[in-house]
Amino acid sequence: MSLRRVFDSEKKQLSFLHEGDQMIVRHDIMVHGPMHEVEMALRVSVRYDPAGKMEAITVEPDDLALFDHVLNTALRNSEAS
Amino acid sequence: MILGRPLLGSLGRRRSSGAEQLSCKQQVVGSNPTAGSLETRRSRPCSDPFGRRGEEPEAPLTCPVSLNPISTGADARRMNTRPRGGIQGEREAMFLGNMDAFMRRDFATIEGSLRSDIILELPGTSWLAGSSSGTRK
């Protein structure tokens, strides 16, 4: 299942916080399941190497239980079909 | 079906009112929506914008000095009244560029900004959860 099928940017406000070699982004996304569409904020922590490339990304949904539920429902649905 | 909530019509999309929203730590248990129904919800944040856990705030949080709120796409160009320069501006521009690339499935553009041994972490129990390394995973 492709990530692009379950995530969608709401193109709403983003916030950036910089600290050393890291940038933290908070932004709203839509998480699509077969029976749900959930609007949720993600906190994305990005760490950069000296060349300016991303070397680590940590994604933390605001509501992890709901996030997992929608994604797992989407997976079950795709396996059943 | 989410307990205590009526079924929606076929593919009806809606936003929950405040009274319908899940509480901060409420889990969706036993959810098994009837085929064809579609739930749309807005998750309420459990923490402040940058992950400091605690009681859910009643009032909007104030932003740290270094916060630079902007929007994406055309709105970003109009609303970004505090453009950053230097490395921070480059990082923000790269992130926005990657978001646009992701939306149009241009993964080559995204890969250009990543190390080949990048580490991606996502907590939880979903099929996406865990830690992976490399751009091909």
Jot down its keywords.
heterodimer, A: 81 residues, B: alpha+beta, 3 helices, 3 strands
Summarize the structure.
The complex is a heterodimer of chains A (81) and B (137). By secondary structure, chain A is α+β, with helices and mostly antiparallel strands.
Topology (elements, then pairings):
The complex is a heterodimer of chains A (81) and B (137).
Chain A lengths: L2 H4 E13 L2 E11 L3 E13 L5 E8 L2 H17 L1
Antiparallel strand pairs in A: 1-2, 2-3, 3-4
Chain B lengths: L38 E4 L30 H7 L6 H18 L3 H5 L2 E9 L7 E4 L4
Antiparallel strand pairs in B: 2-3
Biggest sheet strand order of chain B reads 2-3
* Category from helices, strands and their pairing of chain A: alpha+beta
User: Helices and strands of chain B, in N-to-C order?
Assistant: EHHHEE
- Quote the beta fraction of chain B: 5-15%
Shape descriptor of chain A: elongated
Walk me through what this model shows.
The complex is a heterodimer of chains A (81) and B (137). Chain A has one domain. Helices cover 26% and strands 56% of the residues of chain A. Chain A has helices at residues 3-6, 64-80, and strands at 7-19, 22-32, 36-48, 54-61. In chain A, strands 1-2-3-4 form a 4-stranded antiparallel sheet. Chain A is elongated and about 45 Å long. Chain A starts with a helix and ends with a helix. The relative contact order of chain A is 0.21. The mean pLDDT of chain A is 84. Chain B has 137 residues and is α+β, with helices and mostly antiparallel strands. Chain B has 2 domains: 1-48, no CATH class; 67-137, no CATH class. Chain B has a two-stranded antiparallel ribbon with strand order 2-3. The two termini of chain B are 33 Å apart. Mean pLDDT of chain B is 61; it is low at 1-37 and 55-81. Strand 3 (36-48) of chain A pairs parallel with strand 1 of chain B.
